Amino acid sequence: MSNADRNATAVSAAEAKALFAPLIAASAAIIAVSGGPDSTALLVLAARWRHARKHGPKLIAVTVDHGLRPEAASEARAVAKLATSLGVAHRILRWTGEKPKAGLQEAARDARYRLLARAAQRAGAAHVLTAHTLDDQAETILFRLARGSGMVGLKGMARDRVLTSTVSIMRPLLDIPKARLVATVARAGLAVVDDPSNHNPRFARTRLRGIVPLLAAEGLSSERVVLLAKRLARADAAIEQMVDAAEAVSEQGGAMAQSSYPDEVALRLLGRAIARQGDGSPVELAKLEALWDALRSPEGARRRTLAGAMITADRRAITVEPAPPRRSAHATKALTTGRRSRAGSSKSR
């Protein structure tokens, strides 16, 4: 633990008032609480904020038991007891069914959000509050950087994100270091859960978390990483405005001029056109970049397909339209068999 972590201060009531201000007019809100220090601090801060107000949303804490550890059930009951003592309703939801051997953390996260969204819909709540911290944001950015994300991915997690048509994720603690939440829980005299999966080197995030202190020692602290993400978000917003304007011009002309825009603007414009004309599947950045390079190369293909769209390029412009439907494997086999049969008949003649 660094000196900064040891000297971290608890989150004050005044800070909490600002953090939860967007919820003032809400009728209800779900708080995702695992029992760890971050989510326990979120629960405590939200409960204190609500009790200090005459009017406000009904708070419902939800703990998801993933069924991955035998201790999880008792930990969920402990969270329920704490929530009740704070005057907050509590629900325990369980992820049932067979668990995948690969991509377990991702599958567990998807299941958790699915269950949380369902709980919000039943409660008439438009928001699910999660306890993601500044440290989580930095880890996410580094994780995405290691996997080749572009500017959009390196902006990190959004403070608010749409989960379903009626429910959004809200991350009120995203600018607060984890150490301050640990201090908040310690000041309240509460015990918390230490999930062993957070220390399991089997998971990439755990391994990445282990090198964060080394990066910080070289000046690349979590705060610096998050600052970079904010600057990228600012640049991304400016580029998106340019793409909006370029898209309006392209729609009028029906095609995108080959050399009218800077590469980044043209690349995003092409990606939007593919998303609109294609089959709705995600347009991966690396594949989009490879397509863009191929279309501009003198030796490159003049026509290619990507994500259900057909992209045609000539010297002046690029046109994007829906790709023709693919033949099924059965139809292709029948066509090939028919050709062979006709070839055999002509030989016999």
Task: Describe it.
The protein is an alpha/beta fold and 349 residues long. The chain has two domains: 3-224, Rossmann fold (3-Layer(aba) Sandwich); 260-324. It has twelve helices and ten strands. It has helices at residues 3-6, 13-19, 37-51, 72-85, 104-123, 134-146, 178-188, 204-217, 222-253, 263-277, 285-296, 329-348; strands at residues 28-32, 58-65, 89-94, 127-129, 160-162, 168-170, 256-257, 303-306, 309-313, 317-322. It has a six-stranded mixed sheet with strand order 3-2-1-4-6-5, with helices on both faces. Helix 3 (37-51) packs across helix 7 (178-188) and helix 9 packs across helix 10. It starts with a helix and ends with a helix. The mean pLDDT is 88.
Which labels suit this protein?
349 residues; alpha/beta; 4-stranded antiparallel β-sheet; 12 helices; 51% helix; 13% strand
Number of domains: 2
Give me the side-by-side strand order of the main sheet. 3-2-1-4-6-5
Overall CATH architecture of the largest domain: 3-Layer(aba) Sandwich
Count of strand segments: 10
What layout of secondary structure does this protein have?
Elements: H1 3-6, H2 13-19, E1 28-32, H3 37-51, E2 58-65, H4 72-85, E3 89-94, H5 104-123, E4 127-129, H6 134-146, E5 160-162, E6 168-170, H7 178-188, H8 204-217, H9 222-253, E7 256-257, H10 263-277, H11 285-296, E8 303-306, E9 309-313, E10 317-322, H12 329-348
Parallel strand pairs: 1-2, 1-4, 2-3, 4-6
Antiparallel strand pairs: 5-6, 7-10, 8-9, 9-10
Helix pairs in contact: 3-7, 6-8, 6-9, 9-10
Short description:
The protein has 349 residues and is an alpha/beta fold. It contains 12 helices and 10 strands. The protein folds into 2 domains: 222 residues, HUPs (Rossmann fold); 65 residues.
